Amino acid sequence: MTAERFRAFVNSPMGPKTTHFWGPVSNIGLLASAVADIQKTPDLISGNMTVALFGYSCSFMRFAWMVRPRNYMLLACHTCNASLQFYQLSRWAKHHG
Description:
Helix content: over 70%
Radius of gyration: 17 Å
Shape: elongated
Largest sheet: none
Order of helices and strands: HHHH
Number of helices: 4
């Protein structure tokens, strides 16, 4: 990547000087946590927290789609997190149901 292209990325509306960049980067921690929780037993899963995280990710998927410019990185992050939380919720429901 040339210096001019890098400078254009840094100063773009989706670059690291904006929340469009740092929002998804900070949400990667949610993904890492959800992936790590797959290894745990279902009796350690909190149903209430999993539902809250699923709802949070679904609402922010809509936000990422509606905001201008569209934030595809945030959309991808929350789509993955919603999928993982739904999987965790299904594990919790099988264990308690």
